[in-house]
Amino acid sequence: MKTIINLNERLTEHFVLSEFLASRKAEEHKIPNIPLERHIIRLRNLAVRCLEPTRQRFKLPIIVTSGYRCERLNQLVGGVPDSQHVEGMAADIQIPHSHWPFSVTTEEQMARILWFWMKDNLPDFDQLILEHRGASYWVHVSCHIDLRKNRRQAFILKAK
Questions:
Q1: Residues 118, 128 contacting (CB under 8 angstroms)
Q2: pLDDT confidence of 102, banded at 50, 70, 90?
Q3: 5: pLDDT confidence band, cut at 50, 70 and 90?
Q4: 51 near 93, Cβ under 8 Å?
Q5: Average predicted confidence (pLDDT) for the chain
Q6: Beta partners for 141?
Q7: Going by DSSP bridges, is the β-strand pair 90-94/136-142 parallel, antiparallel, or unpaired?
Q8: What's the CA gap between 82 and 57, in Å, rounded?
Q9: Rounded to whole angstroms, what are the CA distances from 1 to 4, 70, 82?
């Protein structure tokens, strides 16, 4: 039985489901990155509790660079087996360079601003991680539906 989902389903005012499913790797390898209803419910929770308040505060577009990942896609991108992305509870986000305030000159600066604001102002997150690979920086954010499970772990991954 095929799952029918509406890719244009609005999760919040500024976020639609398709943003959390898009993956160049999945397209390249012809992997159907299709979530189940439980994953969509968790993605909506993440968008409502973490992404929309951040979008409202900064009044800048937020790009989801990695959202839901089916198990096969998660393996392909080198994600950990118990990744919250597989459960529909996590997203990696950035603010596009074309929208940075004039005072921000690097991707690292913008990601740090985003990370610090989220850490200090979002009451409901499980993990908040400032990550990078080379000169590319992003914020990983996750959130449980059962708010009692949110650990409020916030840390910055250091370069290896």
A1: yes
A2: confident
A3: confident
A4: yes
A5: 94
A6: 91, 128
A7: antiparallel
A8: 31
A9: 9, 17, 26
Residue 160 confidence (pLDDT) above 90 = no
DSSP 13: S
One-letter amino acid identity for 46? Answer: L
Phi/psi at 119 (nearest 5 deg)?
-60, -45
For residue 148, what are the β-bridge partners? none
The strand ranges marked E within 71-152 are 90-94, 127-133, 136-142
Tokens read off for 32: 């159907």
- Nearest to residue 52, comparing CAs of 147, 130, 121? 121
Residues facing 136 on adjacent strands: 133
Instruction: Say what the pTM is.
Output: 0.93
Of 3-17, 18-32, 50-64, 103-117, minimum mean pLDDT range: 3-17
Q: Which two tokens stand for residue 22?
A: 């898009």
The enclosing H or E element of 38 equals: helix 37-46
